[in-house]
DNA sequence: TTGACAAGTCACCGCATGGTGACATATAGG
DNA sequence: CCTATATGTCACCATGCGGTGACTTGTCAA
């Protein structure tokens, strides 16, 4: 009715994002998107070309947290931070930001079972961003040590990621209640404990926590 | 042709497991299973009742590693172990055993996006098993301490789990090459490093490793 | 005013899925 | 031998999917 192609494009993209966040990838096919957008599906083909292109157009919106967001402060400040503090901040930032992004979560869930061109691109982009973080100056001294900061970082990072992704379909994980914010705080404290121990600091546990 | 119902049942279950391991849940529908088993799909309904029951029958085969397998030795010996050693062994056992079980992996991937009655049951069973491990005697002293062993254990456990599940569709994770056994050894060492630091031991890194 | 083209609508195709009813046949018990 | 039943075969249904061709209608410019 409205005869405004740009508006229609936006309706489609919006509906896609909504479906993705609420129902996951499986229920976000061409027909479902058209239905949710209140638009004929032929327009999706006309304006985007098909599902892959729609996905790509949607993805270019950028739903991956930038370094600033991970840090909670301008990225330039990272250079002045000590390695332990920086690691703690980045990992907890990752947890915080990922929890806020249902669409990003859904894409990451999808990546676990479907391997296609686009998921590959997305993963590669994240990979690159992750490596950049690891290459930040304060970590430089540790790279050459006998410790394997990359592996330790990847492990904790992966752990937080998994728990966030799992929280959609599970309530408990080894006694932790993934529905309660209190238990997420326990996890943040666990990150602190582990990093404190790992970096050999006697920093009081939880001093950087929320309370 | 063979007119042996038990044999047919086994063919169906086998085919289901094969499909599950090789192609994942999505490609293991009724039609696909019947095709792979070389059997008419109506027999699946006759013998099992439908997909949920087939899944349940298959799941009752037990594809979750027992405590013995996790430990790599009789479960009774756990009582004599020190907490750090036990934690290390359990976590690395988890990694080792999960990597050996493509079907278990596939189910865990599936659990991340689909929540139904059966996945709930499976997760609950695992949850119970996991809690039992946490309740093992050597960990008792830590439960009351100011440290949160459950959260730390869950975090590392989740990290290893995620990396194993992710390895199916990704090659790299923060610089780690998930295709190379060497990098998995790096991860095992990272577990050692973290636990050593966490438990405050000066144990030589990697002394418990493979080499 | 009229004509060209963009924007939107409708009907259809082929295909695969989950699911079921009706039928053929082998096997065992009377 | 004959019959009842378990086993297996075949044909079919409704539904939903991704995808496309052909049509109508609005809009804007010449």
- Binned, the helix content of chain A reads 55-70%
Radius of gyration of chain A from the CA trace? 20 Å
Low-confidence stretches of chain A: 202-211
- Main sheet strand line-up of chain A: 1-2
Q: Estimate the mean pLDDT confidence of chain A.
A: 90
Which structural category fits the helices and strands of chain A?
Answer: mainly alpha
Percentage of β-strand residues of chain A: under 5%
What overall form of chain A do the CA principal axes indicate?
elongated
The count of strands of chain A amounts to: 2
The end-to-end distance of chain A, rounded to whole angstroms, is 54 Å
Oligomer classification:
homodimer
Largest sheet of chain A: 2 strands, antiparallel
* SSE pattern of chain A: HHHHHHHHHHEEH
Name the biggest interface. Answer: A-B, 55 and 55 residues
Structure in words:
The structure is a homodimer of 211-residue chains. The first copy, chain A, has 211 residues and is an all-alpha fold. In chain A, α1 crosses α2 (30-37). Helix content of chain A is 64%, strand content 2%. The first copy, chain A, has helices spanning 5-23, 30-37, 41-48, 51-59, 67-71, 83-99, 102-113, 117-134, 140-143, 149-166, 181-198; strands at residues 172-173, 176-177. The model of chain A is unreliable at 202-211 (pLDDT under 50). Chain A contains 11 helices and 2 strands; from the N terminus they run ααααααααααββα. In chain A, β1 (172-173) and β2 (176-177) form a beta hairpin. The first copy, chain A, is elongated, with a radius of gyration of 20 Å. The interface between A and B is large, with 55 and 55 residues. The structure holds a DNA duplex (30 and 30 nucleotides).
